[in-house]
Amino acid sequence: xxxxxxxxxxxxxxxxxxxxxxxxxxxxxxxxxxxxxxxxxxxxxxxxxxxxxxxxxxxxxxxxxxxxxxxxxxxxxxxxxxxxxxxxxxxxxxxxxxxxxxxxxxxxxxxxxxxxxxxxxxxxxxxxxxxxxxxxxxxxxxxxxxxxxxxxxxxxxxxxxxxxxxxxx
Length: 169
Ligand SMILES: [Zn+2]
Ligand SMILES: [Zn+2]
What we know:
Layout: E1 3-5, H1 6-9, E2 16-24, E3 28-30, E4 33-37, E5 41-50, E6 55-68, E7 75-88, E8 103-104, E9 107-109, H2 110-121, H3 157-168
Bound molecules: zinc ion (ZN) (2 copies).
């Protein structure tokens, strides 16, 4: 867990501080598959600015997440450039928008924030390539390697009965 102790910063209004941290990312689980950040530990840049009312946190980093293609199960990855902002005023009431969910007991939880930012930034489908043809729903073969179609009748058991009748005639 990567956190920053906000009391240690002692920023005055108008002051800006840059912090460079390393965040370790646990694997993500999406649609029953496992996606890993590679590398699992990534450098992040945090800029902390003290405004008169609240502290402004700007988080920036680059991440790459890799795992099975959601269509063909081949290798796929997604690259993300994250820029996220949080505001925090310790005097604001709980659940107020000026109170960051990532600040607990005067510590900013950079690790959880970075992880959530990636989860939000990931594409809906992680694919080996944008036009991946996927696996054949009938026979399970990779349609990228072996493009094919099955005739409609193979899917319908009534045709099998007719075929059998015809064979007997
Ligand atoms: Zn694919
Ligand atoms: Zn097939």
